Amino acid sequence: MATGIGTATLTACAAGSPAENPGIGNTGTVTVSDPAPPSPCPAEQLTAALEPGSPGAGQRYATLTLTNADGPECAVDGYGDLRLVDANDIAVPTDSWRTPDPEPVSVVLGAGESAQRLLHWTVVRGAGEPLDAPCQPEPARLEVTPPDRPGTVSVPWAFGPVCQHGWLGGGAFTAPSPSNP
Fold it and tell me: CB burial class (10 A; 0-12, 13-18, 19+) of residue 1?
């Protein structure tokens, strides 16, 4: 498989000596090119799902999965953006952050294939959040903007308020691991 665009010098191979076969020793140049990489996945081609993780000591986790519903091959590369909204489509505080681990890689998705991102947030109140009411408004769904594309993919949010002023994030999208397909 070619790994880039470039040139290669080829030498003709034949039995015998140059006197017996004048093609021996002749060279030529061939250009080898890779097909263009897939374009970023558009939001309308993706579906989203959230799978709860194991909570602990005020910390919460979920795996966000983006799946190529049935469109042409495309790529998810990076983090995308996150926004929580309530049942009336009003944005609730969301402080979307990114960690360097795992770092961004291009995940190519054929029809039905997925990329995943581990999300992390807290239910521990932050400075200035109320003590006698929920720390933040209750989100009804998470809107995900795919990396390098406009538009959003929505997924229901059933994990309660996100404290610390909507502090929600994690590492980049990756290919699903064999233990978490």
Answer: exposed
Tell me the three state secondary structure of residue 43: helix
Helices (H), the chain: 163-166
Express each pLDDT in 163-176 by its tens digit: 999 999 999 999 99
Helix, coil or strand: residue 110 = coil
Amino acid letter, 154: S
Average pLDDT value for the chain? 86
CA angle (123, 67, 142) in 5-degree steps: 30
Taking CA atoms, 80 is separated from 21, 77, 157, in Å, by 60, 8, 17
Asked whether the beta carbons of 149 and 81 are under 8 A apart, the reply is no
Question: How many CA atoms within 13 Å lie on the side-chain side of 121?
Answer: 27
d(CA 81, CA 178): 26
Tens of pLDDT, residue by residue over 50-62, are 999 999 999 999 9
Burial of 128 (0-12, 13-18, 19+ CB in 10 A): exposed
Give the H/E segment covering residue 61: strand 59-68
DSSP calls for 149-161: -SS-EEEE--S--
